[in-house]
Amino acid sequence: MPNELHINIDHIATVRNARRTIEPDLIQAVKIIEATQAKGITMHLREDRRHINDRDIYDIDAYIQKSSKLSFTFEMGATDEIKAICLKTKAKLATIVPEKREELTTEGGLNLIGQEKYLKEFIKAIKDNGTQISFFVDPIEEQITLAKEIGANFIEIHTGTYANLFIKYGSASLEPVQAEIARIHDATKFAQSIGLKVNLGHGLTVNNLPPLMQNLKNIQELHIGHSIIANSIYYGLENTIKSFLAVLA
Q: CA 38, CA 30: separation in Å to the nearest integer?
């Protein structure tokens, strides 16, 4: 079972942008990540460029292609502007996510209903460029079925609802949290049964991962950013990544 850890570095860029300076340097962060057993880098190029910018995308893509065994996942809204940038990279995976300018972070899965024709056409050039496609969706069978029909290779199941319930109740043992775990497990099994690979992401932490991952088989990638970057303030980036890897092991 792969259970690969992919590090979202968006909020390293958030810190840099707060002072409009050059520190912290994202390439240096990638080099630290390379020293661990993490398998990839994830970046979300938002329309408003609130953290990652175009130069970050090009520089890190070039570095990975030349010098690194890490893979690169390009998170993106389904817009022509962002697609044009994606097509200039060698990203291994493009994850299509919902995006609202007013939101603090992605608030839920992409609703594929009614967007099937647009998205099927939207992803064609990306797939032709050698990049696989994932849709970031809630653990709902209808959404997963549509992802497959549209042409996705992967889905990434939105785990934010689970993460919020875990915070609210302080435990995974209570019924609302258990119900969301079951929903994610059922969605994972369904997606795998129709030939999709399954990733997980949003709000995942060292504390909430163990109950979620128990008896959950054949997850491909876990895309985790905020908790890793936040805890690196206390423990350092390399040590924090190692703590997540230990949980996944």
A: 10
Catalytic residue among 11, 44, 185, 223: 44
- How far apart CA 141 and CA 134 sit, in angstroms, is 15
Low-confidence ranges of the chain (pLDDT < 70): 1, 100-106
Residue 2 has a pLDDT of 82
Catalytic entry in 4, 202, 221, 223: 202
ω into 211 cis (within 30 of 0): no
The pLDDT tens digits for 167-212 are: 999 989 999 999 999 999 999 999 999 999 999 999 999 999 999 9
CATH number of 4-248: 3.20.20.70, 3.30.930.10, 2.60.40.1930, 3.30.428.10? 3.20.20.70
pTM for the full model? 0.94
Is 202 part of the annotated catalytic residue set? yes
Residues 4, 6, 11, 75: which is the catalytic one?
75
